[in-house]
Design brief:
Blueprint: H1 3-10, H2 14-25, E1 43-47, H3 52-63, E2 67-72, H4 80-83, E3 89-92, H5 103-111, E4 117-120, H6 126-135, E5 143-148, H7 174-183, H8 185-203, E6 209-214, E7 216-218, H9 226-235, E8 244-247, E9 257-259, H10 260-272, E10 281-284, H11 293-303, E11 311-314, H12 334-339, H13 347-361, H14 368-381, H15 387-397
Parallel strand pairs: 1-2, 1-4, 2-3, 4-5, 5-6, 6-10, 7-9, 8-11
Helix pairs in contact: 1-2, 3-10, 6-8, 7-8
Protein name: NAD-dependent epimerase/dehydratase domain-containing protein
InterPro entries: Epimerase_deHydtase, NAD(P)-bd_dom_sf
Pfam family, one: Epimerase
Length: 408
């Protein structure tokens, strides 16, 4: 949200109001930079936009003064109810249902002549993409689809290096295809969504597209809690019964990660200045560094200054493993560097910022839902004595949980 827009909402004291909000929230500096608003804001339609990557992206679009409409089920995660919700239009729609049940969306499309960009964070089934393209027929200038490196899990790879975009080729054998699909239904469905967009563009004059294939995304406000679980496991280890272990088969395998803010920057740049070379292309986005899972956990431990915590390996089949989510190893980011000028944040900065966020998040009052989720996770999977988690939170963070209530 730009300073100009804040002043329009809150008058001349808008900056002071925001300063107070930033002080109360206490996460990190959030005063907006003064930006030059576009002469004509772009019309942006976002599917999702209230989650991890989506809210980070939408905040940037809001700051630039664009008109943003979100289509989602109406949930607001972390602090997106403060940072996103007041500044966008929202259409409640469940994409798992037929699009003809989304009256608000039909009305929006009917009243809109042109949509500069669709950003799709939430399509996990090809039918969702088909219905969206049919509904928006001829009105979309650019379709940005947030895909995943899981698509490579259902494809053949004939080299041992980092996975290239051109490796997203399904096997010719129907039997092998079905075998891959049975093992990796998520990657199969995401690749089908890409295939729908490709065929529409080639055969039905569909909109130009850009596919962003992301490995495991890390950073603040991750709804999967994967990083936060590892971090809390280390912090509460003296109060838990389960040692910190890594699956032996994956302990020393390099993996790709990507920082949420870097992804949001790329999406924003594609909307602001569409690059003709990027159109109808797929891009791998990842950090330059490819840590192993053991290195990732050791880095988190050292950042927390918990050098006495031991991390070991295990061959037990029930070993907890939250990273990586794919088996094909790191992705090659050369194409993104060349065409998208991809220059990701350094791993040491990602590590520091992410650890610091979750250390503060446990005590932020308006992260109550997320805090309850992480506490229940620790109590359920890491100890047979749930109260030990409460003791640890009190001793380490000074957190009284559940929060005390005044007598009536």
């Amino acid at each position: 949200m730009s300073l100009t827009m804040w002043q329009q909402l809150y008058g001349r004291d808008g900056r002071a109001v925001l300063s107070v909000m930033c002080f109360l929230f206490g996460l990190y500096p959030c005063l907006p930079k003064a930006v030059e608003l576009p002469l004509k804001p772009k019309e942006i339609l976002v599917y999702g936009g209230n989650g991890f990557i989506g809210s980070s992206t939408v905040e940037k679009l809001i700051t630039a003064g664009h008109k943003v409409t979100l289509v989602n089920r109406g949930n607001w995660y972390w602090d997106s109810g403060f940072t996103v919700r007041p500044f966008v239009s929202q259409i409640k729609c469940d994409r798992m249902q037929a699009v003809n049940k989304c009256t608000e969306l039909f009305n929006y499309v009917s009243a809109t002549n042109k949509i500069d960009a669709v950003i799709d964070f939430s399509a996990y089934h090809p039918q969702s993409v088909i219905e969206t393209l049919d509904l928006l027929d001829g009105k979309v200038k650019l379709y940005i689809y947030i895909s995943t490196d899981s698509v490579y899990e259902v494809c053949l790879k004939n080299h041992s290096g980092p996975t290239l975009e051109t490796d997203a080729v399904r096997p010719d054998s129907q039997e092998q295809r079905e075998d891959f699909e049975a093992q990796e239904s998520y990657g199969h469905r995401k690749l089908m969504c890409e295939e729908v967009l490709t065929s529409y563009q080639l055969e039905k004059n569909g909109p130009p597209y850009v596919f962003l294939r992301l490995p495991d995304v890390v950073g603040p406000r991750d709804n999967t809690y994967r990083w936060w679980i590892y971090q809390m496991w280390m912090k509460l280890r003296p109060y838990l019964e389960k040692d910190i272990v890594v699956t032996a088969a994956l302990a020393n395998k390099p993996m790709s990660l990507v920082y949420v803010s870097d992804v949001a920057d790329v999406i924003f740049d594609l909307v602001e200045n569409p690059n003709p070379e990027a159109l109808n292309q797929a891009f791998n986005l990842a950090l330059k560094e490819t840590p192993t899972l053991m290195e990732l956990l050791e880095n988190i431990r050292d950042q927390l200054n918990l050098t006495n915590i031991r991390i070991s390996t295990s061959r037990q089949p029930d070993t907890i493993q939250l990273f990586p989510s794919v088996s094909r190893g790191p992705v090659n980011i050369s194409k993104a560097k060349t065409i998208l000028h991809w220059n990701p944040t350094k791993w040491e900065t990602v590590l520091k910022d992410t650890v610091e966020f979750y250390e503060k998040a446990i005590g932020i009052p308006y992260f109550g839902r997320e805090r309850n989720d992480i506490i229940r996770t620790m109590q359920t999977y890491f100890t047979t004595k749930p109260y030990n988690v409460i003791r640890g939170l009190r001793d380490i963070y000074g957190l009284a949980y559940p929060e005390p209530r005044d007598e009536l």
